[in-house]
From TrEMBL:
Protein name as catalogued: Two component transcriptional regulator, winged helix family
GO cellular component, one term: cytosol
Organism: Chlorobium phaeobacteroides (strain DSM 266 / SMG 266 / 2430)
Keyword Ion transport appears in the UniProt entry: no
Lineage: Bacteria, Pseudomonadati, Chlorobiota, Chlorobiia, Chlorobiales
Keyword Manganese recorded: no
One example GO MF annotation: transcription cis-regulatory region binding
Keywords annotated in UniProt: DNA-binding, Phosphoprotein, Transcription, Transcription regulation, Two-component regulatory system
A Pfam family hit: Response_reg
Amino acid sequence: MRILVIEDEPGISGFLKEGLEEEYFAVDLAFDGKTGLDMAILNEYDLMIVDWMIPGISGIEVCRQVRKAGSSVPIIFLTAKDTLEDIVFGLDAGANDYIRKPFAFEELLARIRVQLRRNNPESDAITAGFVTVNPVTHQVFCRDTEIALTPKEFSLLEFLARNKDKVCTRSRIIEHVRDMHFDSDTSIIDVYINFLRKKLDCSGCGNIIQTIRGVGYIIRES
């Protein structure tokens, strides 16, 4: 899952990036409104976290422009504003939720999960065939056997399972899977697919990931 954070305070943006990556998210940072808006329009994100008061284009205007472009990506505002009028103003601009500064990371993480769950009701436990992926506990089970995966392997399997029955191109995987979007060589995906298959095969689930030659990979429900 890929998140865009638009926040001009280095301490907060660094804190968010570190915390979210520990939760297996891929995180991009922007430190001003124009850069953040350009990134939001150019790339495909699963969620955005936007500070209200940022240099250049305000967080409110970023939100408006993202919605004007037709994107339904969930947006959570970070704001020091706390009046009812301000909150309503932000939600009317297209935000899905807001959290006041200072905030507890655990609360923000819970709000992120709520938004992802609304987009995908199976976000707490994703099943595909005999495989179950739990993004909250970071556990993977094949039948009743738990499979130990590295963070990158887990992120790759989660993305494929979340998009089960859809062909995931290599370029789309590169964009969404933790740390892979820093590597332009899509052959790295094939390496990690092989790692996944070997680990899943030990419990009889190695064939769940199918190759679409010349395109990418797919996990089928059955």
